[in-house]
Design a protein that fits this description.
By secondary structure, the protein is an alpha/beta fold. Helix content is 49%, strand content 18%. Strands 1-2-3-4-8-5 form a six-stranded mixed β-sheet, with helices on both faces. The chain has a two-stranded antiparallel ribbon with strand order 6-7.
């Protein structure tokens, strides 16, 4: 029985590799799937954050594709969420479209992190410093700058800093000059790890592209994403059917919970998203 299972697993792995091999070789760090795989590593996350923030820091916790919900049940999936030794929280997103990089997106992510980090028993002043970092394909702020730092100021006090310890940073990946940040952005567009400047990132990228174990890990990740996308499409169709047959939102939510084994919050989120 054990040998049969191993044979089935090996066949499945080989199918995955044939199906996804070319796509894996084409991946760059601007692709969410590859970004999450490469930076789900403390050392790589430290390099990313240290270069963008221009300071050394030690990452003690890293999560990629991290789901976070607000009190109403609406969720967001963060590309990268990290915590450093000082307790500061970092959310790093790669945005290939201008619509995904609007200021309200940064504001929303920031509010979700604050809500998660502040249990009822903790004082407001114990909120951690938060950094929302948007790495954008285009220069969405249109200033022709490599990086933009956004902080609240007090208008009537000659723009004195408000000191709420919430920082928003936009990185313009279009600028790939001969600076540490420019070289990092260059690396974000390399499909071949050998073309990367940063050796640590190159080694990590090569692990998923040129190493059998890493390739298999990447194939499994991609297959899980494909299955999830297929289920999401099915759920969307089911919600549309509920609406066509005149069901209320509450009944649609109940049906989605029962049929797809989602929590009530998850089902509510899907229904609100697809309800016309």
């Amino acid at each position: 029985m054990e040998n049969t299972k191993e044979t089935v697993d090996l066949k499945k792995i080989e199918e995955f590799r044939k199906k996804y091999a070319d796509k894996i070789q084409d991946f760059i760090l601007m692709d969410d799937t590859f970004l999450n795989a490469v930076f789900n590593d403390k050392k790589c996350a430290e390099i990313l954050l240290s270069i963008i923030l221009e300071k050394n820091l030690e990452v003690v916790e890293i999560k990629t594709q991290y789901n976070i919900q607000n009190l109403k049940g609406r969720s967001a999936r963060l590309d990268i969420r990290a915590k450093d030794k000082a307790g500061k929280i970092y959310n790093c997103e790669v945005e290939n479209s201008n619509d995904g990089a609007v200021p309200e997106r940064a504001r929303y992510n920031s509010s979700l992190i604050d809500a998660e980090e502040l249990p009822k028993s903790i004082d407001w002043k114990q909120l951690p410093d938060t950094y929302i970092i948007m790495i954008t394909r285009n220069d969405v702020l249109k200033g022709r700058k490599p990086i933009y730092h956004i902080e609240r100021t007090i208008k009537e006090l000659d723009k004195k800093p408000f000191c709420d310890r919430n920082y928003i940073i936009y990185v313009n990946s279009k600028i790939q000059d001969d600076t540490e940040l420019g070289r990092l952005m260059h690396d974000f567009y390399c499909s071949n790890p050998k073309d990367m400047y940063n050796k640590t990132l190159a080694d990590r990228a090569a692990h998923f592209k040129n190493n059998e174990k890493g390739e298999i890990e990447m194939c499994v990740i991609m297959d899980e994403i494909a299955q999830e996308a297929a289920q999401e499409a099915t759920i969307k169709t089911a919600i549309e059917y509920c609406q066509d047959f005149g069901l209320t939102k509450n009944k649609a939510i109940k049906n989605i919970v029962e049929k797809y084994s989602l929590t009530e919050n998850e089902a509510t989120d899907r229904v609100n998203e697809h309800w016309k």
